[in-house]
């Protein structure tokens, strides 16, 4: 995966330079710290730091200098790719970083020939709906997708179809993704 440069701007100030890159095992502690507030609110599944280190190859992280400000994991689910553990630091939300991380996951899914990008969430689907995802009714959930659900979490499944040639543009004016070669 190539390293990408993200620029996130605050109103009335110069843009911050963010770098999106593949996670490394040594990022596990920062991923756990970034995820903790979401875990406490029941929005993310708690994962041990050792598990995050072992699965670091699944993650892309957005960094501002040495600080990790966003992350997202991806994993196969049948002929689809599921986005998981998507979270952005509270002081960096609303700048398009999450949208760009989902866009990177979509690009990966398309490159792998997946039919869909999936997201399980307890946060509500409005945000995913704005990115083109639709909620998957329980009676339409495939068996390989059912395995994603953790008992008792009451998550909803959202799907972005990748069968069309149109690539979703997940970038926003506040946070534009620029590809750079590593």
TrEMBL record:
Pfam families: Acetyltransf_7 (PF13508). The keyword Transferase applies. PANTHER family: AMINOALKYLPHOSPHONATE N-ACETYLTRANSFERASE-RELATED-RELATED. Residues 18-151 form the N-acetyltransferase domain. It comes from the Bacteria. It comes from Streptomyces subrutilus. Keywords: Acyltransferase, Transferase. This is N-acetyltransferase domain-containing protein. Transmembrane segments: none annotated. One of its GO terms (molecular function) is acyltransferase activity, transferring groups other than amino-acyl groups.
